[in-house]
Request: fold
Amino acid sequence: MNQDRRHFLRCAAATAAASAISLPAGHAWAQAPERRRFAPEPGNWRSFDVTTRVDIAFPEGPTQVWLPVPSIESDWQRSLTSSVQTNGAARFLEDGLYGVRMLHVTFGKSGATPYVELTSRVQTRNRQADFTRRGDAPAADAASLRFWTRATRLLPTDGIVRETALTATKGARTDREKVRAIYDWVVANTYREPKVRGCGEGDIKTMLETGNLGGKCADLNAIFVGLCRAAGVPARDVYGLRLAPSAFGYKELGANSASLKGAQHCRAEVYLAGLGWVAMDPADVAKVQRQETAEWIKTTDHPVVAPVNRALYGGWEGNWVGWNMGHDLALPGAQGPELGFLMYPVAETGGQRVDSYNPDDFKYQISAREITA
Reply:
C-alpha cells in the first residue's frame, strides 16, 4: 500500500487536474483558492516571552525536571534572558557537544508539590534564501561542516539511508541540486500521520526499512536531514516550538499562544556554499497537505499547498523559536535513557521517567506572550 501511495505522489503532477481535491463549501478558500499566500520574507524582529510551567502532582520519591532553554544565536533568532520560579534547586546547564542549554531542577522531600516555571525571552524573524544568486556568505569552518555530516543513533548515514540518498539524488552533481532532489523526494514519498505520538521518534532507519514513511515533523525532517548527510551535505534538525498564529492564515503553520503544550515543532537546515545555513521544512508541507483542509490533498500544485511547498524550501516564518540542534543527549543526573532530542519538558520521579508526550498527566503548560512595546 505504501509503495502504491508513493507511486501516486510521484505521478501526481501529471494528473493534477484529475486528482484535485475539492474544498468544502464553507471553507474560507473554497470559492477563491488562488488567494492563498505563504511568503515569509526577512524583516523586523519579533519579541516573545515563552513560559513553561511544570507541576508534579504525585511525586513518588526524588524528583527531577529538565526543560529546554533557547540556545540559538543567529541571523534569525536571538536567545536573550531566562528567569526561574521553583520550590526546588535549579541550575542552568549546557551540553558540551551541541551547546544545548537546559534548566535542571531537583526536589527534596519537603512535602510540597514540586513545581517550576521557566520564562525565556527570545527574538525571532522570518527567513528566506535567495537561490537566484551565488551568494556571498562567509565560508564555514571545515571541521564544523564535517560535524554536521556525522551519523547519530537516529540518523545513520550508511545502509538503507545511504542507498535512499543515492537514489533520490541520482543525476544531481552540486549540493544545491542534491538538496533540491532530496526535498522533493521527502515531500513526494513521506506523509503526515496524525496518529503518531508527539512529534515522532525520528528513527529514520526503521522507517525506510519498513517502508512506513508516515510520521510527524521529528520523523519527516529527520529523513530529510539524514538523506542530506548521507549525500555529503551538512544538515541538522532544529527542535523548537510554534509561538503564534501564522500571519498568512494557515492554521496548521501557527499556534494558539495561550496554550502551546502541543505546539512543539522540528525544522531543518542545510549548509550551501555562498548561502550559509538555509532553512528547510518539508514536514510542514506534509502537514498542510494532510490537515489544513477537511480533505487530504495529495498534490503539491494544489492552490493551498503550492505556496507552502515553494516557501519552505529555503524559508521559515518567524512565529517559532528554536530550542537547540542536539542529538543523543544524556540528561545530567537522569536515571532514564538518553534522549534522541530535547524538545519537550522531561521529568523523573522515584527514578522513573514521566511520559513527556502526555501533558495532561504530566501537567505542564507552555504559553507565549508577544512583546509589542
